[in-house]
Structure formats: structure tokens, C-alpha cells
What does this fold into?
Amino acid sequence: MTDEGTSAEEYPTEIHEYLSAFDKSVISVDEMLNKMMSVSRSELLQKIEPLEQAKLDLVSAYTLNSLFWVYLTTQGVNPKEHPVKDELERIRSYMNRVKEITDRKKAAKLDKGAARRFIKHALCDPTSEEASPAKIECKSKTQKQ
It folds into this structure.
């Protein structure tokens, strides 16, 4: 971040750590963008599932708009009063939708038939030796019939 002609004395020492962290972040973003740009988009999209494609598109759009947010800040424009804020919120809402879909896919599925059989046999088994109140009541009903 510092050039040969620029010394640490030209800016307050209190912000040196912040500038160093910012410099590392910019380098990291640059490396990630270079990785993404090294593979053609069509080739990448052919290899992944539609839900993953949506995630990739959302992350790309969010990253681009976030970088624009930073650019506006560096130019002295308040990004909170710029349409980019609305765009970031819109993308975030789509990200939440994709997360809900992903969570639904991961959720355990209930086999209703198996659950019914399990409950029925647990509550009403007239031949069982164990005598729970529910089983006694069930036994008396089946004997009356």
C-alpha cells in the first residue's frame, strides 16, 4: 500500500493498522476475482447444480455492489442515500430465499405411514404384557367388540 515515495509519516499513525488491514483485504479480493475470472462462466455453470448457480450469481452481484459501495465511500458519496443500498437489500432478500430453500432440502422428512404405525402399536397393543393406562383402555375396548 505504501509506495517508495510515501512514508508512514504522511498519514496519522493511528490509522496505520486500518490501512494495513484494508490493503490485505484488497489483495485478498483481487486474488479471488482473478480465480473467478480464470474460468469461463459458461464452463463453470455447466459443472454446478441450479441452486449452486443461483448462489454464485447472488454472491457475484453482492460482491460487485459492495465494491461499488466502497467506491462511493472513497469518492465522498454517502452510499446510504444511493440506490446501491436498495440493490444490496434486494440481493440480500434473494440470498435469504435461497437459504430457506437449502434449509428445507436439508430438513428431515417424516414418513407419515411409519409414524402412524409406530404410534398405533405403541398405544394400542391388546396382546402386550405391559399394562399402561392407554393399553388397558384399548384392551377393554377390543374385548367389548
Summary: Residues 50-74 form the longest helix (25 residues). Residues 112-144 form one domain. Residues 109 and 131 are 32 Å apart (CA to CA).
